[in-house]
Structures are given as C-alpha cells and as structure tokens.
Design goal:
heterodimer; A: mainly alpha; MetI-like fold; two-stranded antiparallel sheet; 4 strands; B: about 375 residues; alpha/beta
Chain lengths: ~350, ~375
C-alpha cells in the first residue's frame, strides 16, 4: 500500500453531478414525507373545522328563526294593498328568536331530536340508536354472507368460477351508493322489509330497508377482504389438515377461520366503519324523522343521514341548525375513530403468528 | 402521423361545410296565422311582415283536459295592438340568465313560465336566448338567498315577513311584490284510506301539538279505521309550512306537531303518503292534481259542508285552506338585467294561460289590479344608464 494519489482522492469527493443528485434526493424525501403526513394533516384539519361550530353549539346562543310576524296573507287581502320594500320598515330585533346553548346533558340525555323547528329539541340519542340499529342490521346481512362467500371462493369454487365471481363482486362494490338507495326505496323497502318484519307495520321509509341495503352494499368489500385474509393462511396448515383426514368443511371452520380470524375481524370492522358513515342509502330509504325507537320497522335517521338531510337545506351560517350539523359530525367522527382504534386492538389480539 | 393530421383537417373542413350548408339552407320561416304548431313551440314568436305571430294554445282546449275533444291544440295566432310589440320586445331579451329560487309550491308555475320564456327568446334570438334556473329552497330559504343577493327573483307561497324584509333592507336589496296565482292547500291521504272528508276541527286535532294528539285514525272519529297515523309535513323553511300552521287552525307553525317527516321536496311527501296506509300530508293543490293517481285529496268542511278544492272554491274562498302565491323580483336586477324585467312582464302578462297550463288557480280581479299596479311600479324604475 503506497500513498493514495491525489487524483484518486479527488475522484472520491462529491462532484457537481453528485451534489445535484443529493439535492434532488432531499427534495424527493421531503415531498414524500409531506404526502405521507397528509393523512395526519387532513385529520387534524377535519377535527379543527368541526370543533369551532360544535363549541358554539354548546356554549353560545344562536339564531333559530324569526317570530311569526305577518306569516300569512289571505287571498282577499293579497290584492288589497300593494307593497314593496319601501313600505316595510325595519323590523325590531325582538322578532329574531334565539336558541339557548345546548347543554351536554340535554344533548346526550334527551330523546327528542327536532333541531329544525324554532323551539327545537336537541337530544342526539335517537340518532345514535338509529345509527346503531342500521349498523346492526347491515352487520347481520353482510358478515355471515360475506364470510360464506369468502369460504366458497377460497375453498369450494373451481378456479374458473372464482375468476368470474371475484371481479363481479368487485364490480358490485363500485356501484354508486345512490343507486343502492333507489334500490332500497323501490325494491328492498316495499317487497322485502315490508314482508319479513313481524313486529309492526313497515312504512315506505324504514330503518330495516336501509339496514339491509347498507348490508348489501358492504357485502362485496366484506367478502373480498375476508377472502384475502383466508388466502393469507399458510398453505402448509391447510394441507396438513387435509393430510390428517379433515373434510373441507372442517378445514374451513377448524383451520382457516381461526387462523385467518384477525384478518376477518379487520374486514368486519372496516365494513362496519363504512356502514356507520353511509349517508345516501339511509337518507333515501329510512326517511327524514329521527324517531326515538328500537323498532327497525319504523322510520329513523342516522347521524350521517341527518347531516345529509340538514346539509342540503339552507341553514344560515351560525344558526342553531347549522351548528347541529357540526356537533353531530364531530360525534360521528369520534365514534368512527374509536371503532378504528378498536379494530387495531382486535387485530393485534387475535393475530396468530406462524413464521 | 402526417396522414392522420390530414385526415383530421379534412374531417373538420367537411363538418364545417356540411354545417354551414345546413344553416344557410334551413327553411325560411313560413308559418302564418292559423297554421298548426307543436306544444313544444308554445310561445314561439315570429315577425311576419309588419305583424307578429305567436304559437299559442287554442282557446277552449287544455293541457289537462280529460275530454279528448278539448285536448290541447296549438296554432299560430296574430297578436294585435300594443300587446304584440310589447311581447316581441320581452321576447327579444338575450344572452342573460335569471336565477330564481324559493317556494317549491310556486316552482311548477315558475318553471312553466320559464320554459315558455326561454322558447320565446330563443325564437327571436336563436341560441342566444335567456336561461332561467328555478330552485326549490322553500319560501324561507329562498328569501335568505334573495336577501343575500344571490337570486334575481324569489318565489313565495306567503307574503314576505317584515323580519325578512328587514334583512333585505340591511343588505340594500329592494324588491317589488307581485301576486302571481292562488293555491289551495290540499290535505292528502293514502288511496286505501276510506276517509273522504274532514271537518276543520278534526284537521286541527290531527295536526296541533298536544299531549292527546291522535295516533290512530280512529282516535279522531271512532268510525274511522284503527290504522296508525303517519304524518308527512312540509319542510320547516317552506311557506307551505307557515301557511299550514295558520290554515290548519293549529294557531301558527310553532304549534304544529313535530313528529312528522318533513321535506322541502313535495315529492317526498307524495312518496310517503303513497307508500304508507296511515299516511297523511299536505301540499299545493297543483301537486295534488298532478299526483291524483298516487294519493287521495280530502274534501274539507268548515261548517258549510264538505268542499272539494277546485279553482272556483279556492278563488271564492269557500275552500278553507286557500292562499295567494307571490314572486318578488329584485329591483336592482330589474334595472341592471333587462332580461329579468322582460321575464317578469312576460310572466305577468301571460299569467292566466301559464296558471292554466301549470294547474294553478288564476288571480282574482282585485289581485289582477294589484299585479297591474306592481307592473307600473316596475316600469317606473330608473333605467340603467349608459
């Protein structure tokens, strides 16, 4: 080993070209980091935008409407006096009606939800119960059927059947929810929900019809995710079971189900998060009245469908009706967030590690 | 590559040639008074020599006639006198759009007027006609937009409240009130419901908030069926909701029962009452007539026997739930956008036929006087300078 020539040392120092590449590298890393953190930024943004009106909802009084001054002119009077804006003097402030801030006790303790009326009631329980009932119905429809489909695709279906069936399922997953909504309104409601509910009359709008249809909507996602979870079960386990003489059914229930449980649970919870936030179907099929009831045959409103219902009307900014949308939105966000946290816990708990 | 570009150029040239031939070769307007025209051409105008002709419905026929002999027919008709010139001037509005919002009750009427007006302006100016957009935010919602300056005309199924007018005034928006038609509020039930007529006292009992509010039809009158009542109400932002609060005898909208499904869209009520055996709802008479195959309209009795809502009973005020409808054009729009003034004049001067076509109850004589007064007030507005 002799001394290294100065020329060789120079060649190891960063040249202009390499420096430029390093800069590019830095920019790329920065951009990717920004994109990666966008999820967090957006979440923070959502919470922030929901916070302010919600805070006002609980702490400040807001305009709820106008006193019924001159609400009505009869036919005979309507031609009597000709009026224009110059004839109408400034109305005094006293005509504006205010709604007092809603206390947390009223919000979570009252069972009447009539926020659109002038002397409104702001008990969110009917919405929560409605949401849970619709979600529960959707679960009952989607989870067993979804796992069944996944078993069939994974174990029983021939390769050709599978090649046709799986893309078809994925197409179903791409159907816009508003189409499902109309399906609920014209088919599921009048022909299915009306005939299968033994406890009461089922009207044109019902939580049952909405729940069933939401179940159908999340079914493809549920099935696909469960199928993926089952496909991830190591082949050695399945083949080992067959070698021990297990039937296909025994393999399904005894090996694949427990081994793929964490994935299947994750599928269930992702599907439920979808169901809980589903707006359009429920808006179209479950009606527009938040009824305090546990009867699925009745009309009901979920948190998401209330937001959809109130959001399309003209709620003047900072009116009580406007603030309720945000309060309910924040509650929905918290519940969905909690559900996702729960799903992480569940997946961890049931995870079986094989390698 | 080059050949593709050549083909493209050739294609464009060919299209242009064909299109220009079509345009030049289009037949010259050849209709004359008395010739037949199509319903879609209603209110099309043309200048023939020095006189004006317009495609109009033949008097005595109707779009809604059950009698095949009186089925709507359309013919070109020569307009005479001052009307002709005036209608031509109104129809000459072009290159403008008009934003209308408000009552869903008035919307069908305004939509018919808008359609005729669009046809009329297109017939005079080709594709450069006026576009009119009609929304259904409800009377209250409509005034909120109107007083924020977002719309040119607000439809209302009640007179503007002084509180609303005050907000308009605070935003510097002035307007003119124009009575445009009348409407009966129809109370509708499911087709299978045996009830035909209710007294006003029973209507009040049905809709007024109270701890003893009926839940079954038999709670109102014992001979009625014991089906559960399902209430479908108008949206709380609508004039229909306000008017029903007064007309139902509940004593204002604050006293109406809250346990009703509400929607600004009357079609939601139609669907609900149609699908629910115990359903009951209310909306403008024209919706009830339009949906006569889906819901049953009740007769009402205010002490002088059961009265069916018809044009005569609404105009004569013998039907208990009748109300006037209004449009409120914004004065600054009238001044700055000539198309708005043209539309309002067109609407007002042809209002009788438009009411007929949209199944609304025409104005009474007193109301027509008010309307004429409003039009002269509009005409007296300052013109846009320059």
């Amino acid at each position: 080993m002799t001394t290294i020539s100065s020329a060789a040392v120079a060649s190891l120092l960063p040249t202009g070209h390499v420096k430029k590449q390093r800069r590019i590298e830095k920019v790329v890393v920065g951009a990717l980091a920004l994109i990666a953190s966008s999820g967090v930024i957006i979440t923070v943004g959502i919470v922030f935008s929901l916070m302010q009106p919600t805070y006002k909802f609980f702490t400040e009084r807001a305009i709820s409407g106008y006193a019924s001054d001159e609400t009505f002119v009869g036919i005979e009077e309507s031609g009597a006096g000709l009026r224009d804006s110059s004839d109408i003097s400034f109305a005094d402030e006293s005509l504006i009606q205010y709604a007092e801030p809603v206390s947390l006790g009223d919000f979570f303790g009252s069972t009447a939800w009539y926020p659109q009326y002038e002397d409104g009631d702001f008990g969110v329980l009917p919405l929560i119960v409605g949401t849970l009932l619709v979600m529960l119905t959707a679960t009952i429809v989607a989870v067993p059927a979804g796992i069944g489909i996944a078993f069939f695709l994974n174990q029983y279906a021939k390769e050709r059947t599978r090649r046709v069936l799986k893309p078809l399922l994925e197409v179903l997953a791409g159907v816009p929810t508003v189409v499902f909504g109309f399906f609920a309104l014209v088919f599921v409601g009048p022909y299915i929900a009306k005939n299968i509910w033994p406890f009461s009359d089922v009207g044109i709008y019902s939580g049952l019809a909405a729940g069933i249809t939401v179940g159908l909507m999340i079914l493809p996602m549920m099935a696909t995710l469960a199928d993926d979870a089952m496909a991830a079960v190591p082949n050695s386990l399945v083949e080992g079971a067959f070698a021990l003489g297990a039937t296909r059914r025994e393999v399904c229930t005894g090996v694949i189900l427990p081994a793929g449980l964490s994935g299947i649970m994750a599928a269930v919870i992702i599907a439920l998060s979808r169901a809980i936030g589903e707006t359009t179907i429920v808006l179209l099929a479950a009606g527009s009245q938040a009824v305090w009831t546990f009867n699925l045959g009745s009309e009901m409103q979920t948190m998401a469908s209330y937001i959809g219902f109130a959001g399309i009307g003209d709620q003047p900014v900072d009116s009580k009706g406007y603030q309720t949308i945000f309060a309910v939105g924040l509650l929905l966000f918290i519940i969905t967030f909690g559900l996702n946290m729960l799903s992480r816990k569940v997946v961890k708990r049931f995870r079986e590690v094989y390698e | 590559m080059t050949s593709f570009r050549k083909q493209l150029v050739r294609g464009i040239v060919a299209t242009a040639v064909v299109a220009s031939t079509l345009a030049v070769g289009a037949p010259v307007f050849a209709a004359k008074s008395g010739d037949k025209c199509e319903q879609r051409d209603a209110y099309k105008m043309a200048k023939v020599g020095t006189s004006y002709i317009r495609c109009e419905i033949v008097p005595g026929t109707s779009l809604h006639s059950a009698d095949p002999k009186k089925k709507a027919a359309f013919k070109w008709k020569t307009l005479t006198g001052k009307t002709a010139e005036a209608q031509w001037v109104m129809s000459s509005a072009k290159n403008a759009s008009i934003r209308i919002d408000g009552s869903s009750t008035v919307a069908p009427l305004a939509t018919v007027a808008a359609k005729y007006f669009e046809t009329a302006t297109k017939s005079v100016n080709g594709k450069k006609g006026v576009k009119v957009a009609v929304g259904i935010a409800g009377t209250g919602g409509g005034f909120e937009k109107f007083c924020r300056g977002e719309t040119d005309i607000s439809n209302a199924s009640r007179a503007i409240k002084s509180s609303e007018a005050a907000i308009c005034a605070a935003n510097g928006i002035s307007f003119t009130e124009i009575p445009i038609a009348n409407d009966g509020l129809a109370l509708v039930v499911n087709k299978s419901n045996p009830i035909d007529c209710m007294t006003m006292a029973e209507v009040t009992k049905l809709w007024k908030t109270s701890t003893t509010a009926p839940t079954k039809w038999s709670d109102i009158r014992s001979s009625w069926p014991s089906t559960t009542i399902k209430l479908f109400g108008a949206g709380t932002d609508s004039g229909t909701f306000d008017a029903f609060g007064d007309l139902s005898g509940a004593g204002g909208k604050a006293n109406l029962r809250k346990d009703a499904s509400t929607s600004e869209d009357d079609n939601v009520t139609v669907r609900g009452v149609n699908g629910d055996v115990g359903g009951v709802g209310y909306f403008g008479l024209s919706y009830a007539i339009e949906n006569a195959d889906k819901v049953k309209t009740l007769k009402l009795d205010k002490g002088a026997g059961c009265v069916e809502p018809t044009i005569a009973t609404v105009q004569g005020n013998t039907y208990p739930m009748s109300r006037p409808l209004f449009i409120y054009p914004k004065n600054s729009s009238l001044i700055n956008n000539p198309a708005v003034g043209a539309f309002v004049n067109f609407f007002a001067t042809n209002v009788k036929q438009i009411s007929d076509d949209a199944i609304f109850v025409p104005l009474t004589d007193t109301q027509i006087k008010a309307l004429t007064g409003a039009l002269s007030k509009i005409a007296a507005l300052p013109k846009k300078s320059g």
